Amino acid sequence: MLTSDDAICIRAVDYSETSQIVTFFTVSHGKLGAIAKGSKRPKSSFDGPIELFAHGRIVFSDSSREKLATLTEFQQAPYFANLARHLPLYNACLFAAELVNLLTHDYDPHPGLFDSFLTFLQNADQLRPAAGTHRDILAPLIVFQLQLLKKIGLLPLLNSCANCKKPFTPAWPEIYFSNPANGLLCKDCETGFPEKMRLTKSAADCLANPTAIAEAKKTTLKQVEQVLVGYFTYNLGHPPKMAKFILNT
Ligand SMILES: [Zn+2]
């Protein structure tokens, strides 16, 4: 049976001299793997080899969800050409795609997450960050990560103490984030949790109120990103591969 869906390529590996195995994140079918036979031939039905972040309408046969689907058509929207020219942007998008791949299951749709991911890629493609700065991409990347966590039901408690449930305010004298506690910790509760990270008020404010992210300084955004990478690492059991490129730029 042939099925169609809107899709974004989140992974593509060569399968043979002429074919690729592609992982798509789709609106109605979630993540799915498909073989694109002949995609590397100059005249394929997929407009040439399928690149990461290529997006558009796919048609595929999914006779059995145990096996790879077979891609039969891919009507690609105009490619995000700017992304490939700016390494910080490209790395941020690779990181976002890696998180979608790691944190969603095959055939488990999250249409809201698809929209957030596509919007993130579109926004990244519009940026022209000056050389050496990646603040411009870090802010939307953090917003995307918080949306991802919320949409897959993994968002930690960020607007109150995860232990005593006291509502967070920037007036707290000390603020911590703890993975085992699954959220923020106040000064009264932090001693019960050996594994924690002390946060600046502005970093905690960004986590509790995502509207603060757009105005935050780069140092604040870097601390927020450190919290998020630590949280992904704790929940996945290993750091995402692209995390070091995001933290070290
Ligand atoms: Zn507390």
CATH fold naming of the largest domain: de novo design (two linked rop proteins)
> Count of DSSP helices?
6
Radius of gyration: 20 Å
Looking at how many chains there are and whether they match, the oligomeric state comes to single chain
- Principal-axis shape equals elongated
Structural class: alpha+beta
The first-level CATH class name of the largest domain: Mainly Alpha
- Biggest sheet overview: 5 strands, mixed, barrel
Q: What is the CATH-assigned architecture of the largest domain?
A: Up-down Bundle
Strand content: 15-25%
Distance between the amino and carboxyl termini: 46 Å
Mean pLDDT: 93
Number of domains: 2
| SSE string, helices as H and strands as E | EEEEEHHHEEEEHHH
Work out the number of β strands: 9
Ligand list? zinc ion
Fourth-level CATH superfamily of the largest domain: Recombination protein O, C-terminal domain
Helix content: 25-40%
- Pick out the low-confidence regions: none
Physical arrangement of strands within the biggest beta sheet: 1-2-3-5-4
How would you characterize the overall build of this protein?
The chain has 2 domains: 2-76, Beta Barrel (OB fold (Dihydrolipoamide Acetyltransferase, E2P)), CATH 2.40.50; 83-247, Recombination protein O, C-terminal domain (de novo design (two linked rop proteins), Up-down Bundle), CATH 1.20.1440.120. The N and C termini lie far apart (46 Å). The protein has a 5-stranded mixed barrel with strand order 1-2-3-5-4. Strands 6-8-7-9 form a 4-stranded mixed β-sheet. It is built from 6 helices and 9 strands. The protein is α+β, with helices and mostly antiparallel strands. The mean pLDDT is 93. The chain has helices spanning 87-103, 111-126, 135-151, 201-208, 218-236, 243-247; strands at residues 2-14, 20-26, 30-36, 55-61, 69-76, 157-161, 175-178, 183-186, 197-199. The structure holds zinc ion (ZN). Zinc ion binds at residues 161, 163-164, 166, 185-186, 188-189.
